[in-house]
Amino acid sequence: MPEIEEGFVPITPRDTVVGYEIVEEFGLIQASGVTGRGVGKEFFANIWDKLGGNNRSWENSFEQVMNRAYDNASKKVLENTDGGNAIVNARFDFGSTQRDMPYCVLTGQAVRVEKRE
């Protein structure tokens, strides 16, 4: 198993990072990502939905908010813990606001892991 690169924070739904041992726990970490949708995208997305097509615009929006939540959680671990370098037991929750703005909330356990010998 390779070493974890500086600045990269593995995030996993498992209770451990494969090949690593948890040596310190820092508690719950939560981060979110949200994005607005343009009027044009919404207009064409509604037409496409009525035609029964696959709405790639929505798929891209949810991918964007998931990546934002991932980035925000990584930053929180690196900046707000003393040596945290991973998130375990991660859960991604998706939804949309009343104004059809997609969002993602990532919740997990911030930990410090070290490579097993």
UniProtKB/TrEMBL annotation:
Pfam families registered for this protein in UniProt: YbjQ_1
SUPFAM superfamilies for this protein: YbjQ-like
Origin superkingdom: Bacteria
Family in the record: Belongs to the UPF0145 family.
Protein name per Swiss-Prot or TrEMBL: Uncharacterized protein
Organism expressing this protein natively: Rhodovibrio sodomensis
Source species taxonomy: Bacteria, Pseudomonadati, Pseudomonadota, Alphaproteobacteria, Rhodospirillales
